[in-house]
Specification:
Blueprint (H helix, E strand, L loop, with lengths): L1 E5 L6 H19 L7 E6 L5 E3 L5 E3 L2 E2 L11 E4 L13 H7 L1 H11 L3 E5 L2 H7 L7 E2 L6 H6 L3 E2 L4 E4 L2 E4 L4 H14 L1 H11 L7 E2 L4
Parallel strand pairs: 1-2, 1-6, 2-5, 6-7, 7-11, 8-9, 10-12
Antiparallel strand pairs: 3-4, 10-11
């Protein structure tokens, strides 16, 4: 289970770092009992040492996002949001949508069979890529109308599971999404152990197919 969190300048800190911490604990805990643990890493589209998040935090980048067919391509690609509504033209999800490189990479990974999870307005980058067209999804409340207008089937839920496409609403919902994925991949025991360590209680149901 190899997970890449795709970073860009202006991503929201909690969108990227919150799920990363959950996944990192999962890899450590799973490795204690079986060999299903993989790795989680921060990636970018280009070679760089770090990116600067929306509130100024500098985060180190581990590697460049591999092509979908590469040996080190992720099983799950996590896409944070950030700065969409502010329309920051220099550093934000909005800026990346306008540049087009991130949406093209997301479209390629989706076509190549990579499971993708969006956090907050990361869903709008998937919408720009055409990935959410006709698919059940959710995003931050400030961008819900735009997501609907893009052709997605918006679901009123904190986390939506539409098979190879998962999405989470506002910023902290990324933690719920990450714990849901951990429970699927490593079992409820590992997920519950992480909830205890980070002192977080899930209180929301995940909207699966047909819900």
């Amino acid at each position: 289970m190899n997970i890449d969190v795709l970073l860009y300048d202006g991503f929201d800190e909690l969108d990227g770092i919150g799920p990363y911490e959950v996944f990192d604990y999962a890899m450590d805990f799973a490795a204690e009992s079986d060999d299903r643990a993989g790795r989680v890493r921060y990636v970018a589209l280009d070679e760089r040492d770090s990116v600067t998040a929306s509130h100024g935090t500098r985060v180190g980048v581990d590697d460049v996002l591999a092509d979908p067919e590469a040996d080190d391509a992720p099983d799950l690609l996590v896409v944070p949001g950030g700065g969409w509504s502010a329309r920051d033209e220099e550093a934000s999800a909005w800026a990346e949508a306008q540049k087009g490189d991130v949406p093209r990479a997301l479209a390629a990974h989706h076509a190549g069979g990579t499971r993708i999870a969006s956090l907050c307005t990361g869903a709008m980058l998937l919408a720009e890529a055409g990935v959410t067209d006709g698919r059940r999804a959710v995003t931050h409340a400030a961008a819900i109308d735009e997501l609907r207008e893009s052709g997605a089937e918006v679901v009123d839920a904190r986390v939506v599971d539409d098979g190879d496409l998962l999405s989470a609403g506002g910023v902290t919902s990324g933690i719920d999404l990450a714990l849901y994925i951990v429970e699927q991949e490593f079992g409820p025991g590992v997920a519950a152990r992480i909830e205890t360590v980070i002192e977080y209680d899930r209180q929301h149901e995940v909207a699966g197919r047909g819900e």
